[in-house]
């Protein structure tokens, strides 16, 4: 019997991933390739077409009802145009929806990658059942997506929720965007790694430098060292969590969501960061906002793919997957009761 | 012939204002009284009822179709409950919609004061015709309201757009809310007056102190002195405009509106502030956001009343007053061409 599925792509600057996703948000086939990021849009669109063939060959009986794509911004989701992503050379106003629609003869929808991940988490991950949600991804940079009343909050030209470039301080190194004090510049995984690198020296025997083989220390090394009880790493995470708490407090005051979901690479250290994030929010947020749960994302690196698929599969109102039947076999989505690790 | 009008109230901590507002947003009768702010909710509701009688007596032939109220937050606009406004003693979870609805036998709608002013400006003032807008009121504090896709962006419990308590710096005096670096704490009219007071001394012969009769210098004194060419006042406004520019840049990145509208007392100095606001936005905003107009509010102190009335009168989609016939006599609303003083 045929299953209705969406073909989904997550077009990143380093990796291109594709999947077939069925109702309930489950990935039933997937494949990936290193993005030919410097080869221009035609080459990458060729990769998408090749990857699609690979994936469809895994499930020849699948009935593909459309294609959802998450791609780096800036992009115009309504017009279906990738405008000028800094991580993809030679992409300028590429009408990706038209190109893929013509090739495959299927409906195509486009969303920026952070918004796609936010949709994935809201519909099938940590945010399911909530009316509104702010998704924050903390890794190399900081990105985000806001879901309100059942929709991504797009704003003019789809440019809302550029939360990494919200100024939260007057200090710190200049952000690549040119401003001082961007949330991303002080609170990203990159910023954490930079602080850890500055605090240590090659050959100093510290756990941080042993984990990094005496190279630059990354955010992952800090989390690993903190798990081993390293005092310096724990202090670095405490400072990191304070910055995250300041930024999250702003997001509470500005968007008043029902829930904040933290994803990205640094979410691997969420359990270590959460107590100080909550302390900072408790100190800085106005009372009415302090009890909003802040939780870890559930879908990991697949959030963007699953969210892109949902652009095709999901037709319902907030919290109600009207156009989708829930899977009988819930294979892999954690139970909701597990998800409020940080709350309390 | 009867005209359909709304009865509107703007319930402030110092002044209670009421008006009859007809289609097109024009005030056809109004009255006000000093709010009995320490006398509890029953006394103030009695004032509202008395004021309503005064206003209705001015236009006995008017056909009142409902009552719109702007009141201080926090409040729940859907439930119609004023929760606990800091400026009104003895108000705790007051079901204002039910109380006024029972008394008058009319539909009643409630919105917080900043959101009501945002609606007024969007529907009948500087924001008319735009799809989305952020309204910022800069006076004693800083408040705001966000209109997106034809609606106030409410968030959980109507608490979104608490923009005065967005952290934008690590410096400055502690905000009354307890945090450091709130937008309001560094960029409100109060903050400007405080800086002007600290920069001068009673009896120093400065224009600022002459204007203040050697008392504390207010934001209005700074604007007046700057208009007279006072160098110190101009420098104070330049610093003020930089803070406003930092905050407005965040609002662009977070909400991506089509327009920012600045109201409140300090909008009286908008022409003096606008060049440095724009320079700061040009330096700090990412390129795609830099051309968003930032304009002065048009409705002044009446924005809240007119917006409250529109809760009753306005039934249409964004930019289209479907349920209202436009006034033939446009008496008092400036022409749209005048409104982009700052843009260029």
Automatic annotation (TrEMBL), chains A, B:
Q: Where is this region: Disordered?
A: 324-344
Q: What is the lineage of its organism?
A: Bacteria, Pseudomonadati, Pseudomonadota, Alphaproteobacteria, Hyphomicrobiales
Name-wise, this protein is ROK family protein
Q: Which Pfam families match?
A: ROK
What family does the database annotate?
Belongs to the ROK (NagC/XylR) family.
- PANTHER family associated with the record: BIFUNCTIONAL UDP-N-ACETYLGLUCOSAMINE 2-EPIMERASE_N-ACETYLMANNOSAMINE KINASE, ROK (REPRESSOR, ORF, KINASE) FAMILY
Q: Where is the signal peptide?
A: none
List, as start-end ranges, the regions of compositional bias called Basic and acidic residues: 325-344
What is the species listed in this Swiss-Prot or TrEMBL entry? Answer: Mesorhizobium shangrilense
